[in-house]
Input
Amino acid sequence: DTAVSQTPKYLVTQMGNDKSIKCEQNLGHDTMYWYKQDSKKFLKIMFSYNNKELIINETVPNRFSPKSPDKAHLNLHINSLELGDSAVYFCASSHAAGAFFGQGTRLTVV
Amino acid sequence: EDKVVQSPLSLVVHEGDTVTLNCSYEVTNFRSLLWYKQEKKAPTFLFMLTSSGIEKKSGRLSSILDKKELFSILNITATQTGDSAVYLCAVENSGYSTLTFGKGTMLLVSP
Output
């Protein structure tokens, strides 16, 4: 009964590689997000999609590209990974009842 | 720009104590205020508050919202070591359906 699921949970990769993180929600929510959590536990929004349309794109490098094939999925593709991209990335979805987060994906760039 | 400020940033208490965590906010189009408990990695949803003065309660946790003064508090009574976590407050903007998070309050409950 996982509500918001992200894969993979852990990702270790070398600088310069391209990687994707997938997110799926089975809650029927219209809005999905990607957040980056920094070392101080602060969650910073990166993107927000509503019904497959991009509505928020914070100051994020162009190397990060979200893709929403349908309302239930919001994937995050990262090109040319850099050391500073190492963080935990959270996917979330929301509706009137509140917001629900995935378990996070810990990305480590070496 | 929407803004959420939580205080204190960190707090150490003994088991059995009662704690109050604060959250003040500025948001252009307020929809709701949410509290999360973050353990390990993923925040766990605690409460969603939309109306002033109505207390939400779940076990030893309770929360209330003041939309006039733009703040909320989260109370935890009879704290236990399992309550140790970062507590996040977030406000939802109805215009963009986005969440703006505060930096969190790190609570440590010592035995």
